[in-house]
């Protein structure tokens, strides 16, 4: 009987189970990702890179006319990255730090921002939606586990989306 159990177990593991999961392991019943056109979104994230975890906070201002402005802070409140992505996709690094260099912000922070908050993610977006307000981005050398804490709909100040106003 023990010999017959092993092939059966292998078949069951290979077949998987019907859990109602969609692409990338996201639950199939989740609605499409949509955020208010104008809002302030507070986020908490854990960045895992080189085997270490870094807790981050994010404040994202969304504007239907101005674009998206993300400010990333560390646990003590120091600004690590500040990036503005205009509606046409132009990226402006407003502020950088030793931990988040300008080229890294432009490529990865802005890329991850558009991956989650850019509307319809493209095929190069390695995002997994774990729940309505929980997202995971896995790239070759880092992983970003992001949770939306609060979304406050409403117009944001226009100067937030002016690349000349720092």
Chain-wise SSE layout:
Layout: H1 2-15, E1 39-49, E2 52-63, E3 67-73, E4 79-85, E5 91-95, H2 102-117, E6 127-131, E7 134-138, E8 142-153
Q: Which architecture would the CATH scheme give at its second level?
A: Clam
Helix content: 10-25%
By CATH, the topology is outer membrane lipoprotein receptor (LolB), chain A
SSE succession: HEEEEEHEEE
CATH superfamily heading: Lipoprotein localisation LolA/LolB/LppX
Brief overview:
By secondary structure, this protein is of the alpha+beta class.
Walk me through this protein's architecture.
This protein is α+β, with helices and mostly antiparallel strands and 166 residues long. The chain has one domain: Clam (outer membrane lipoprotein receptor (LolB), chain A). Helices cover 18% and strands 39% of the residues. It has two helices and eight strands. The protein has helices at residues 2-15, 102-117, and strands at residues 39-49, 52-63, 67-73, 79-85, 91-95, 127-131, 134-138, 142-153. The protein has an eight-stranded antiparallel beta sheet, with helices on one face. A hairpin with a 5-residue loop joins strand 3 and strand 4 (79-85). The termini are far apart. Mean pLDDT is 82; it is low at 1-29.
């Amino acid at each position: 009987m023990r010999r017959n159990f092993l092939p059966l177990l292998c078949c069951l593991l290979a077949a998987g189970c019907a859990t109602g999961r969609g692409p990338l392991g996201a639950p199939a019943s989740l609605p499409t990702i949509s955020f208010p056109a104008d809002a302030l979104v507070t986020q908490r994230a854990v960045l895992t890179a080189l085997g270490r975890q870094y807790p981050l906070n994010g404040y994202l201002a969304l504007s239907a006319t101005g674009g998206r402005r993300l400010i990333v802070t560390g646990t003590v409140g120091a600004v690590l990255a500040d990036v503005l992505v205009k509606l046409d996709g132009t990226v402006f690094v407003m502020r950088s730090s030793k931990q988040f260099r300008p080229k890294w912000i432009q490529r990865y922070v802005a890329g991850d921002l558009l991956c989650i908050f850019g509307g319809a993610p493209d095929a190069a977006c390695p995002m997994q939606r774990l729940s309505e307000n929980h997202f995971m981005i896995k790239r070759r050398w880092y992983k970003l586990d992001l949770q939306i804490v609060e979304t406050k709909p409403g117009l944001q100040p226009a100067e937030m989306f002016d690349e000349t106003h720092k």
